[in-house]
Amino acid sequence: MIALKVEDIRQFTSCLFVGNMFDRFLVREAEVVTFNTFHIDGKVRKDYYTEEEMEEKRIGEFSSWEAVKPICYTLIKGKKLPGSFRMVFQLGPGQTENFLANRQLSIRTEQISGLYVNVRYEDGNLYCVTGTSVTFFTLDKTLENEWDEAVKEFLRKNKIPCIVE
Questions:
Q1: pTM of the model
Q2: Residue 35 neighbours by CB under 8 Å, 6+ apart
């Protein structure tokens, strides 16, 4: 786990709320604090959709950021900055498989509960904090280290300057 302090908050928030940088990530939860605190748990209510919609749109257990982003953007836009916001993003199952294959890691997809990026804005600072969760006990930090590097590469690729804190 590493904490990356974003140096250009305006650029990052533009990529987050207007661009498509995080669109393929799943939203575990989101919270936006403006005149109220707005909390989104990210969990899809399957009874809201038909089975055909679930299959056609490939809807899983959690909503994509692409689906939730317009709601969060509506909450933060305006003349005043939000008091704070935080989003917990998770890499989707297909992307987790690709990550493991690209990094040539021997761990199986079903052994990973989640690969996370926690985005947190508060007190005028914005951080991206990495996280991993596995279904078994291990002292091996290879997965965690590879995920940390992958997130740094992802931010670099998207021209987001940050420093490790």
A1: 0.91
A2: none
